[in-house]
Design a protein that fits this description.
alpha/beta; 10 helices; binds adenosine monophosphate; binds zinc ion; binds fe (iii) ion
Length: about 300
């Protein structure tokens, strides 16, 4: 059983439609794939239809932009994977609407900064890159910069302009992490912190933070991810064991938008996946919400 629980389609900042992504998962030899676009469930229906046709098992999920402020003055952007929540749960919809508005609202601000750096780029350029994506992200601005010939690829755009601390970077709204953990549970879903110690280089949330989050309903951590070194994976695995969290592994596939993140490059242990599904069933029952089922071939 090959299980990949974190992928993106063109509905956010991947480069394939949800149906293409599901077919690519099958071709890559995956048995189970989760679609986890940033801050939206808009790709679910198309993915479900493709999964039924293709015969791959599909988990409906999303990757929610949150902020963790432990109270020591530090602030951390944390991505929270939410599996099988009721996407119509009003408080969840309300938060996601704010996040999506923040994504859209920062585009003109970032473009203003780019123009201040002498780069001629318009909102139409970004709209052409993002197409009908529900969640606009910096990768779309990066793609526009590639099309304009300003940079060669997405990574270069982040390194020179768009990454945190780079000259065109503008922050945006993110939901408080602990609030979102609670909302996902109330929506009958299972929450898993994505790449907890990824790009930022900081080891937060740490074990004590995660213990508090687990009390609030956090169920898992993504251990095997390309942004984690072998040492980081070992450290996270020890924490996962101590706290009884589900431990996942996944590609964080973005089509051609991210190199070295091929489908199935990391996978989730079938026993961990089974635990995740048990927790989802329990969360669904406890919430009383109409949650989506796993789509089985
Ligand atoms: P945003 O959602 O607008 O905050 O942009 C974050 C997205 O950009 C995530 O999906 C990341 O995978 C992607 N990303 C972040 N840093 C880089 C980078 N250096 N190169 C390419 N993609 C990146
Ligand atoms: Zn992304
Ligand atoms: Fe992420
Ligand atoms: Fe992701």
């Amino acid at each position: 059983m090959r299980i990949d629980l974190h992928t993106h389609s063109r509905v956010s900042d991947g480069t394939e439609s949800p149906a293409e992504l599901v077919r690519a998962a099958r071709s890559a030899g995956l048995d189970v794939v989760a679609l986890t676009d940033h801050d939206t469930a808009d790709g679910w229906d198309e993915a479900v239809a493709a999964a039924r046709e293709t015969g791959v098992e599909l988990v409906r999920g999303m990757e929610i932009s949150t902020r963790y402020e432990p109270g020591d003055g530090s602030s951390h952007n944390v991505h929270l994977l939410a599996y099988l929540p009721d996407p119509s749960y009003p408080p969840l919809v309300e938060e996601l609407t704010k996040v999506l508005a923040g994504r859209q609202g920062r585009v003109p601000l970032m473009l203003e900064r780019l123009r201040g750096l002498g780069i001629s780029i318009s909102e139409a350029d970004v709209a052409a890159a993002s197409g009908d994506a529900a969640a606009t992200g910096r990768p779309h601005i990066a793609d526009a910069l590639v099309t304009l010939g300003v940079v060669g690829h997405r990574d270069e755009a982040f390194d020179r302009y768009l990454g945190a601390g780079r000259p065109a970077y503008v922050d945006r709204y993110a939901a408080p992490l602990i609030t979102m953990v609670r909302l996902v549970a109330e929506a009958g879903g299972v929450s898993v912190v994505a790449h907890p110690w990824g790009r930022s280089g900081r080891q937060r949330p740490d074990e004590a933070d995660l213990a508090v989050l687990a009390e609030a309903g956090l169920r898992g951590i993504e251990v095997d991810h390309q942004d984690h070194t072998p040492q980081t994976r070992d450290a996270l695995r020890a924490i996962g064991r101590n706290l009884g969290l589900v431990m996942t592994g996944s590609s964080d596939y973005h089509g051609t938008g991210k190199t070295d993140h091929d489908l199935g490059c990391n996978t989730t242990d079938p026993e961990e996946y089974a635990r995740l599904l048990e927790l989802a069933a329990a969360a669904s029952q406890h919430s009383g919400r109409a949650t989506p089922e796993v789509v089985r071939p």
